[in-house]
Amino acid sequence: MRCRSSSKLRHPTQTGFTLIELLVAITILAIIAVLGWRGLDSIVRARAGLTAEMEQTRGIQLAFAQIENDCAHLVDPINLPGREVLSALGSRLVLVRTVFEENQPSRLQVVAYRLREGVLSRSEMLPTRELAALDQDWQNAMSDVDVNPAIALQSQVLSLDMRTWRNGENGWRMGGSEADGAATPQAGTGAPATKSGKLTGLELSVQLTGRELPVTKVFLLGAV
């Protein structure tokens, strides 16, 4: 019996990954990459939405601060008998404010806030001490004539609602105007027009794009 040679060739042991193992690994990596991309995308979207909301909030806060300053310097209607000093009608707010500057006499200025094509803007006329010029500025503001360039305060505004509070009444009224001794009808009662107290409060409700509820603020009219 012949002995087999011990030098018989032996196949070396194969190492590495099989094709199936590589496919499984690639599939797992692809799934992880997709999940990671979706998570990153959601974070980026949330951050963009938060940034936009913060910009909206900052913009409306600055707009309210400007309106508050104008309302605080509203002219007392007693000083302008027979003339309107505030009109809050529709999407337009027009008022007459007192301007105080160093080394200058006090002057009067017409300021108008308007909502046009989703943008809340503010425009102001030149301060004056002439009643004729003041009357012309008021007519221009009420007629939406832009004598001076308007400054955009807030964009993406869907609606602007205003209510006023008048002394002697028990609730807010939609819109309103202020003139010394103005005769105003009793809304919803059918009663004839009667003289009433002066306006002391203004409420603004601004509905912004992407927000469920409007942003509302109440302003005091005149110096406190």
Summary?
This protein has helices at 19-72, 131-142; strands at residues 84-89, 92-99, 107-116, 119-124, 151-154, 157-166, 173-174, 176-179, 183-184, 194-195, 199-208, 215-220. The protein has 224 residues and is an alpha+beta fold.
Write the layout of secondary structure elements.
Blueprint lengths: L18 H54 L11 E6 L2 E8 L7 E10 L2 E6 L6 H12 L8 E4 L2 E10 L6 E2 L1 E4 L3 E2 L9 E2 L3 E10 L6 E6 L4
Antiparallel strand pairs: 1-2, 1-8, 2-3, 3-4, 4-5, 6-11, 9-10, 11-12
General description of the model:
It is elongated, with a radius of gyration of 35 Å. It contains two helices and twelve strands. Mean pLDDT is 82; it is low at 181-195. It is an alpha+beta fold and 224 residues long. The longest helix has 54 residues, at 19-72.
Largest sheet: 6 strands, antiparallel
What is the helix content? 25-40%
Sheet-strand content, in percent, reads 25-35%
The topology string of helices and strands comes to HEEEEHEEEEEEEE
The outline comes out as: elongated
Measured between the Cα atoms of the first and last residue, the distance is: 125 Å
How is the largest sheet built, in terms of strand order?
5-4-3-2-1-8
Oligomer class = single chain
Q: Give the helix/strand class.
A: alpha+beta
Provide mean pLDDT, rounded.
82
Rg, rounded, reads 35 Å
Q: Which ranges are low-confidence, i.e. pLDDT below 50, for 5 or more consecutive residues?
A: 181-195
How many alpha or pi helices? 2
Q: How many strands in all?
A: 12
InterPro entries: N_methyl_site, Pilin-like, T2SS_protein_J
Region (Disordered): 174-196
Biased composition (Low complexity): 179-194
Main location: membrane
